[in-house]
Design brief:
- The protein is mostly helical and 128 residues long.
- The chain folds into two domains: 76 residues, no CATH class; 35 residues, no CATH class.
- The protein contains five helices and no strands.
- Helix 1 runs antiparallel to helix 2.
């Protein structure tokens, strides 16, 4: 018996599956991984033509945006995410290089009040 080809899109059966898959790709941070995840998610809903229809974009625009050398416009990315029933959110990522020098989390008083931050953290706005 021969092996069976693995297709990620076979396992992206619900909007929640697609959301988790794309979120994991975004956490990876490599734009090639993100574009691949978006292409595989497109396969799970019927292909690039269906994605284009749902996103209100031309098929050519979707292929160009999500191709291996793709660099989608922000508006195209939002339209594509919306076509999957997804949105874009922003979260604070503790531990990211440089973030410790910008944000103070020294709120350790009894009521969570600011007890003062080192001047090097945020001299203008302590305990942001």
């Amino acid at each position: 018996m021969g092996s069976v080809a693995y297709k990620t899109s076979d396992y992206l059966n619900t909007p929640e599956d697609i959301a988790a898959y794309i979120e994991a790709a975004m956490e990876d941070g490599d734009e090639r991984v993100i574009l691949l995840a978006l292409r595989e998610a497109a396969d799970s809903i019927g292909g690039m033509a269906e994605l284009a229809r749902r996103a209100g974009l031309t098929r050519e625009a979707v292929y160009k945006a999500l191709g291996p050398k793709g660099n989608p416009h922000f508006s195209s990315l939002l339209a594509i995410l919306h076509a999957f029933g997804l949105g874009l959110g922003v979260t604070f990522r503790k531990g990211i290089k440089g973030s410790a020098s910008l944000i103070c989390d020294q709120k350790s008083g009894i009521f969570g009040e600011c007890l003062g931050c080192p001047e090097s953290v945020s001299p203008v706005n302590p305990c942001i």
